[in-house]
Each structure stands twice: as C-alpha cells, then as structure tokens.
Task: inverse folding
C-alpha cells in the first residue's frame, strides 16, 4: 500500500508564522507525545505509524518545500516535487507516475491520497485502512472519505451518500456538491450529506491509465519534463466527478483544519509559546512569539498575538480568518527559512544612500550538513562564527573555523561551509543587488 | 532669566519605547510644525522660544541622558548631570550652583524650574512669564504655578489659594496637600484648589542660600564632588513647604502628562507610526512601530500596539497605565540607544553551548562624530561597513573605511571610529562576557 500526502499551499492565513517557504503544515506548534513540539505534518506521519498502517509514504509537493520536509520527516518519506505549480490532478498524477515508473509499484497496488495536515484522531486512520480494504474488495474503482459535518459550512464540498445495506462499511455516492451557499448547506445536512474530506483510495493502474490519456511517458523523468502538458485541473473535477463507480466511507470523529489562528489556537498546548507574558486581563488570548524580544499583552481578550521575523499580527481570534487579503503585500521575502542544512533568520535589512544594501542573518547549521559550494557576483559576505566548529572551503583549500573566527568572502569568490558540530554564525551580506538569485552553485561531493 | 528643565525618569510606563537610556520625554512621536516629528522636550524648548521668553536654558539630568539631550537640543542648552540619582532638591541645588558659581549669574537673577515634558499650549508659557514678573515685583520669595484641575485626580499634589485682590495676578497659598485620597480630592476641587504643576520661580540667591546651609562650596566642582552630602529629599518638601512667603499663579489651559500610552496616543498625529497597517475592525487602535517588521492589527479596538527592539506591547488603552509592574523584568538591557555619536539597535543576542555569547548591533554614526578610543578585555568585535565613509584608528595609525570593508578588532586591541560622512555598520560582538562595563576609554583629541 502506498500513501501520497499532498503538501502545498503558502498559508498566508497563518501569517506571520507561515510564509512562502514554510506553509502552515510545518509550524512546530502542536504538543507531541514526547513532551516536545511537532508540526501538523509530523503529527499525521506519527499517527499513520501509530495506526499500524503498513504503507510507504510519498509527499507530493513543490521544490520550495523539499528542504523543510527532509528536516521534519527525515528519510521516512519519498518526495515528489512538481516542476511548476499547477493543480491537484497533475500533482497526484506526477506522484503516481513516480510510484509506477520510478518505484516500479505494480498496477494493482492500493494508493491512498490524503492531505498532509488534518487534525484528527485515531479513527481517521482506521477509516483510511477500511477505504483501502474497500478498494481491495472491489467496492468501487474510487473510494473516498466522507466526514460527518460539524456544521453547515460553506467552505467544503459535500458528498451525498445512497443508503447502504446493513453491515456494509461503504455507501455508493448519490451526487457531489461543490462549496454550497448557506441555505443549500443546511439542506445538505438534512439529507445526511458528508463533507468531502479530500482522501481518495484507488488502485495505482486506475490513475496511471488516466494520466496516459494526456501524456504517454515511458519514464518518470519524461513525464516530469512534460508536466505542463497535464491539464491544470483539480483531482475532484478530473477524476472524482468522472469516475464510473465511487464509494464513500464515513468518518465521524474529530476533524479540524488548523488553517486559521482561531482554529490553531484551540489546539496549542499553552496560551504562550515563546517569549511572552499575558496580564490578568488577557483571558482567552494566545501569544506565539518566534522573535527574541518579549511580548506583553494586557486588557485584550480572545486575541492572537503572533510574531516572527516576517511580521507581527494582533487580531481578535474571531476575525483571524480574514487576514489573508491584508497581509499579502506586507512582506516581500521570507525572513525565516528552514533549509536542508539548518535554519536562518533575517535580522536586519538596510539600504544606504549610495544604493548599497545590507542583509544581516543569523544562521544555524546542523552538524554534518553543508551549504553548497557557491559564488555570488553582486555581493560580499562576512561570516562571524559564534558557536560550534566548521570547515570553510575556498578554491585554495579548506580551513577550520570556530567561535570568534571571521571569514570575508569577496565578490566572485567560490566558497562553501560545512558544520562539524552544530554551528552558529552571523552573516552580513553587502552589495548592490541582494537577491536570492545571485548564486552559482557548483556540484561538489564534500 | 534662567530656566532649569528637570529631565529624569526611566519611563517604564511607555515601555517598550522608553527604557533606561531613553525616557519618555525623548520619544520622537509628536507632530512638529515643520511637518516632521519632535519629542516632548523638543516641543517644550520650541514653545519657550515661540513664547518670546528671553531666558537661557539648563537641563538638570543624569549622565545616562546627556548624549540624547545633546542630540535633541544641540548647543541651545546647558546640561548639568547629577553624579548619582538622589531627588529633585539636590538636582535643582546642583543646577543653581552651576548657574551661580559656574556661569556667574547674579544672586538676583530670576530662575524658573519646570518639568521638561508637559504637553501644554502657549498660555502655559505666558503664565511662566507672569510668574517671573511676580518674583521681580517681590510678590513672594517663591512663586509656583497652579494648574486648573481637569478632574479630582489622586495623582497630583494640590495647592489651595487664598482669595486675591481684584486685578492681582497672583494668590497667596493657604496650604499644600500631597497626593490626596479620592474623597479629599473632590473636596479640594470644591475649595477651588489647583494642581501643583511643578513649576517654581525664585531669585537665584534664595536657593543658593538654602544650599549653603548643607554644603558651603566655593566652586561648582566642589559641590558636585560633595553631592552625596545634600539631603535626598524632594524640592516640594525641602523648599516649597518651608518657604516663608509663597505665591501661586494660575494656568487654566491644556495641561497633560503624556506619561501613559493612553494619554500619549491622544496626541499622536496619526494612528499608525512606523511600519504598520490597521484593518477596518481596528477603530481607535494605535500602532507605534520602531521595528522594521510590519505590524498588522485587526478586530481589536481602542488598543495600543507598540514595538521596539526592547519588546512588543499589546494593551487596551484603558489598562495601559498599569503595565509598569509587569514589564519591569522583561528586558535586562536597553536594545535601542541614542548616543552623542548617533544611535544603535540590538539586532540579536545568542549564547552558545560553550558559553560564548554574541551581540549583533546596527550602528548609525553622525558625520563628524566618533566613538571613543577604547579597548575591550573580554570581547572581540567585527565591523562590516554598510554605507558612508569613516576612519578607524588603531595603535599603529588610521585607516579609511567604506561600504564593504570589514574590520576585526581583537581582545585588548585599542580602536576608535570616526564618521567622515553619515556612517552605517553592522557590529558583531563575540566573547565570554558581553557587558557594557567591559570597556576602557582613552582620552584622545581626534
């Protein structure tokens, strides 16, 4: 059995903690059973393991998320990154082609596609196991999960089931309804409709057949190279609504989308995360602070105060769903990123009257990891090492560095950095064009 | 005529913008007539000039405020810094001794002592002129200002005047009452009492006589050296309540203490100062942001959101008077300071597992200004120059620096820095003991 976790989104709704480089599913804010913190995607992968589902995991994502997925999930998962953002059908098609042509999975292997970040309980995962059984038993060519609605929401698609025989764990689908208006949603609940949970089970060959109608690729690389030929359409429109036989299996337990601060705060283990203090008149208010400066909040109830190097949000919890349109233009580059080699925070940006810009970062490298061997044509960099021990590589050779050492990298000079122990440094970039693209990477085994 | 402006306080009530190094009177938040911003003390000095009061100004303050006063008021004022913090009587005694022995003002010169930060209008300054006239005309040995109370506040001392003859611009004082309880305050208002505005006029010799009873100094330096012999007592207790003849002149116009966010926000020219955005559901809310990261506020009404390198405050305006006790322990060092040579912001502090600390600052030096020639015994510093042009002095000589240059100052190495043009640099300090006191300054004319 193969599970494809769909990981996308830029998550502006959880601004300022989520950004282009760190979508909501990667925020390490939930309590983990070990007493630490875990992200939504780490929670789902942990729950899949605890449910005893014997499946291999593949994350369908984009290139920007590759590093953070490796950081958070390690080598427990495969990663299939789409070459450009299209829609859910092409993304799932690419991952299925990888399973079929890259991983040589047989055409009759059961595949489950699911979101990577639902906040649920163990019954959700046993429902997934039942869906896989339905596919194996031939109940339908496509099996999907129906979520018992908590309210007549207009944010979800609905599935109307047909009555099932007693004891049968699945229902045929009578019809689908996309996001309805409020009145329709109430009628759908009266009819016994369920939310479409975005979880689908099918045999691998079922989907690769559909893909081959658009692109008959011989290898995974070929399909990836012709990715733009796949239609930009959702899996629901392209596959679910065209399927000849669809079954639905119901899940009636807890199911939440922690995609807004209001929803997320309900699941935070403590009212204050990070450096912060709530006064006695701040009942129901949550602080999530990723900055080092302290936050003090008093006299404001039922609010969220969230701070990161990207910005500071102060919002009533009940209005926090609507922040997306306002914050879209507040930040033009991510100020915090998780990379394969570690993390960095932007501390400061300046632009002098002579057009020279500076960008100051605090970088943490994990032991054994390295920043690629590279050069910049428009900037210099000054590294001041603060703790740990590392090795700097130049064209002329290598040099060991530790706390107190300073390395000045000139324009055009090849350089690389490897952490021998956990390594912390302050990097000051200075130049006339400080853009991420000013980088030439050399392939180099180190 | 001489005016002594009393400048003290650490201003925790306007945290996080005010700190040990920048009291509330120096916050550049008020609208100035030129269209820019000015601080409370700059406003008072401007208003004194506009009122046509022909007086020389001396600021009585402490050493920590000397640099910011020079920055904000330039050479228009004298500065007398007390060698240690005592109380208002010793501070005024020190300044009067400076006027008498340092500046050789005659004993019959009229002196007005006043706070440096009341938010008032032009009538306040014409009242000061009338008070000086009263002293000149011999109405009393001490003349003070009575403020018409806006409400029966328990935060101020009260002055109960005797009835005056028709046409007489001053009243004899019947009695003083220190900060009363609420019921007493109501009765005081019924009696026609005024707030004691903390403005006093007298002849210089009147005060130097009192001082000489404690310390009979021959020079200003001698009194300054024996400052600890002056009693730690307020001017009200030591002088006002013991005076044989006291007159009071009334001021009935606008008079506000902008010492809380609630009061200050009413006088801010715009609801957003700095990088911030208010949503449509944030009526009555003010943002004051000295950080570079953006603040977005929505769904919270009548609140103050204030951010600086020292911290972030989110408070209902009505509870903002009470923040002092909570924030006292949130910050252990000022993260923003104005100095004689310019300003700095602390960007980051880290402490490695090996005990090595780092402190990253962004410094702006004004053209022509210099950081003193100094050395550190427990830290190294790395300067990366971002814009402008300066001169670095070492034991071996001088070196010109500009954008892109890097200077690494070792432990124990003498160094100085002068700005030839406005100069911006990133400084990374690294060492085992990063404290302000780790500095040896050499006197050096440069």
Result:
């Amino acid at each position: 059995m193969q599970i494809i976790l769909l990981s996308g989104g830029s998550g502006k709704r959880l601004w300022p903690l989520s950004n282009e480089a760190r979508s909501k599913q990667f925020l390490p804010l939930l309590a983990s059973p070990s007493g630490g913190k875990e992200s939504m995607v780490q929670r789902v992968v942990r729950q899949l393991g605890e449910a005893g589902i014997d499946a291999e995991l593949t994350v369908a994502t984009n290139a920007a998320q590759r590093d953070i997925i490796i950081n958070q999930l390690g080598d427990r998962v495969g990663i299939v990154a789409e070459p450009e953002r299209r829609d859910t059908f092409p993304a799932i098609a690419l991952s299925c082609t990888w399973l079929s042509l890259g991983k040589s999975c047989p055409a009759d292997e059961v595949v489950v596609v699911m979101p990577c970040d639902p906040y649920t309980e163990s019954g959700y995962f046993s429902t997934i196991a039942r869906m896989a059984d339905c596919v194996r038993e031939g109940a339908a060519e496509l099996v999907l999960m129906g979520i018992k609605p908590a309210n007549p929401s207009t944010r979800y698609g609905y599935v109307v089931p047909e009555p099932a025989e007693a004891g049968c764990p699945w229902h045929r689908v009578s019809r689908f309804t996309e996001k309805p208006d409020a009145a329709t949603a109430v009628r759908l609940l009266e009819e016994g409709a369920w939310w479409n949970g975005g979880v689908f089970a099918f045999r691998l060959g079922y989907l690769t057949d559909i893909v081959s109608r658009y692109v008959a690729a011989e290898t995974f690389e070929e399909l990836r190279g012709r990715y733009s030929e796949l239609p930009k359409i959702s899996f629901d429109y392209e596959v679910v609504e065209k399927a000849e036989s669809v079954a639905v299996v119901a899940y009636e337990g807890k199911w939440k989308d922690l995609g807004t601060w209001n929803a997320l705060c309900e699941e935070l283990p403590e009212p204050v995360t990070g450096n912060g203090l709530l006064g006695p008149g701040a009942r129901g208010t949550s602080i999530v602070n990723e900055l080092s400066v302290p936050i003090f909040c008093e006299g404001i109830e039922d609010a969220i105060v969230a701070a990161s190097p990207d910005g500071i949000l102060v919002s009533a919890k009940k209005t926090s769903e609507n922040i997306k349109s306002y914050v879209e233009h507040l930040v033009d580059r991510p100020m915090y990123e998780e990379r394969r080699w570690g993390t960095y925070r932007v501390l400061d940006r300046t632009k002098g009257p002579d057009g020279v810009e500076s960008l100051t970062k605090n970088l943490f490298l994990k032991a054994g990891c390295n920043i690629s061997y590279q050069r910049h044509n428009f900037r210099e960099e000054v590294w001041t090492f603060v703790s740990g021990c590392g090795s700097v590589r130049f064209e002329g050779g290598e040099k060991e560095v530790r706390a107190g050492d300073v390395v000045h990298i000139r324009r055009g000079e090849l350089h690389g950095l490897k952490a021998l122990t956990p390594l912390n440094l302050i990097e000051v970039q200075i130049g006339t064009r400080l853009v991420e693209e000013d980088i030439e990477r050399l392939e180099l085994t180190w």
